[in-house]
Amino acid sequence: MLIFVIRSAIEYEKKTRAFNLEQEKVLEKNRILLVREIMKLRAELANAEKRARAAATAGNPSPGDGRIYGRAEVGYGGSSYPNPNDPQQDQ
Question: Which ranges of the sequence are coiled-coil (predicted)?
Fold first, then answer.
């Protein structure tokens, strides 16, 4: 009787181990897929940050280039007040 119980326990352990090994393989495949997805998302994030920095740089000219507030005549030493003699001034 004791031998039968021991054999049953051994068979149960074998089946459980085989099942656990299969589960481990599935989990490892899922882990690899997740790592690839994380790497892809990190690359997308880095590219988006680069594009945002480039857009911010393009949209924010340096203070001395004469394009402050959309008026080319306003630069260093320029006047922000309207010129009454300027024929191209918006009215």
Answer: none
Q: Which domain holds residue 35?
A: 27-59
Answer yes or no: is 6 within a domain: no
**Would 84 be classed as within a structural domain?**
no
Q: Which of 52, 74, 47 is nearest to 63 (CA)?
A: 74
- Tell me if 53 sits within 8 A of 59, measured CB to CB: no
Dist. CA 89–CA 83, nearest whole Å:
8
Rounded distance between C-alpha atoms, residue 19 and residue 37, angstroms = 27
pTM of the model: 0.51
Say how many domains are in the chain: 1
The answer to whether residue 21 is domain-embedded is no
Chain segment 4-50, per-residue pLDDT in tens:
999 999 999 999 999 999 999 999 999 999 999 999 999 999 999 99
